[in-house]
Write a structure and sequence with these properties.
Layout (H helix, E strand, L loop, with lengths): L5 E8 L7 H4 L19 H4 L22 E3 L12 H9 L3 E4 L4 H8 L4 E4 L2 H13 L4 E5 L4 E3 L5 E3 L4 H9 L3 H6 L2 H9 L16 H7 L1
Parallel strand pairs: 1-2, 2-3, 3-4
Antiparallel strand pairs: 1-5, 5-6, 6-7
Length: about 220
């Protein structure tokens, strides 16, 4: 996963409420098991007509949108199903942060585990940002993950909430498995002085992580 430190970009303005995961990546594309290539299907039903040609009026098809790394949305972004393909498609397209007034909980969790930063803004700050982008569509924001702040086009720096562990993983470019693998020496040292419980477990007792690892 690409580390996330600071992203400076003009925004893709999709200021709509209740954009759900089926709109982000339609269900017919969920057969894919790889993250690569999903970006071409991002917002497919809005982005393309029945013949597969780009719709000129949709925001991603407008001139100047290519290469932008921040999406400006509305409220309740990512509602609907729990598909991880939604953040996969956004990241594969090049989006690294979504700015909105609220996010669906499952989407937020999936985003944080897949390199996408969900930035929650208050309604007042969101309204100011929308106005600034309408006045200057090429205005840039700066998302500083280490500081957990967004710098608006007018220079105001606004803090946003983020889980500290998820923040650290994104800054380091690691997922939860990578975090565990980085601590294998400490795990081995712990297991060396603690006997395995497998031989004493009754069938109704669940294996501990240590027991499972020893068994495999």
């Amino acid at each position: 996963m690409e580390p996330f430190t600071t992203v400076t970009s003009a925004v893709v303005p999709l200021v709509a409420d209740d954009v759900d995961t089926d709109q982000i990546i339609p269900a017919r594309f969920l057969v894919a098991t790889s993250k690569t290539g999903l970006g071409q299907h991002l917002f497919a039903n809005w982005r393309y007509d029945g013949d597969g040609a780009p719709k000129p009026g949709f925001v991603l098809n407008r001139p100047g949108m290519a290469g932008r790394r921040v999406l400006l949305a509305g409220a309740n972004f990512g509602s609907g199903s729990s598909r991880e393909h939604a953040p996969w498609a956004l990241v594969d397209f090049g989006i690294r942060a979504v700015l909105a007034t609220s996010f669906a909980d499952i989407f937020r969790a999936n985003a944080l585990k897949n390199g996408l930063v969900p930035v929650t803004l208050t309604e007042a700050v969101h309204a100011r940002l929308v106005a600034q982008v309408e006045a200057d569509p090429d205005a840039e924001v700066v998302v500083d993950l280490a500081a957990a702040t967004v710098r608006l086009p007018d220079g105001e720096e606004v803090p946003f909430p983020i889980d500290p562990f998820a923040q650290a993983m994104l800054v380091e470019g690691r997922d939860e498995l990578g975090y565990l693998l980085a601590h294998l020496d400490a795990i081995d040292a712990f297991e060396a002085v603690h006997p395995s419980p497998i031989s004493t477990l009754r069938p109704t007792e669940p294996l501990s992580i240590r027991g499972y690892r020893s068994a495999t």
